[in-house]
Fold this sequence. Notes:
Elements: H1 2-6, H2 8-30, H3 36-57
Amino acid sequence: MEFWKKYPSLRIALMLITFIAGFALLIFGWKMTGQMKGLCWMLVGLVLLLCTLYLYNTRFADPPERKAKRKNTH
């Protein structure tokens, strides 16, 4: 996850590309009403939009914290 924090310009460029491509595929597939190919294009567009969300959220993801072993002091 540190990779995306070190190179924010690359992350933003990938987000822009996946968003535009995903949205374009959704519209392209929507115009093919009644065809199975249209549904497939829309699903690919949806996957690209989900990839955009993943790239956006990587900035906020923290590495898992290691829990120190605690002794009961009761």
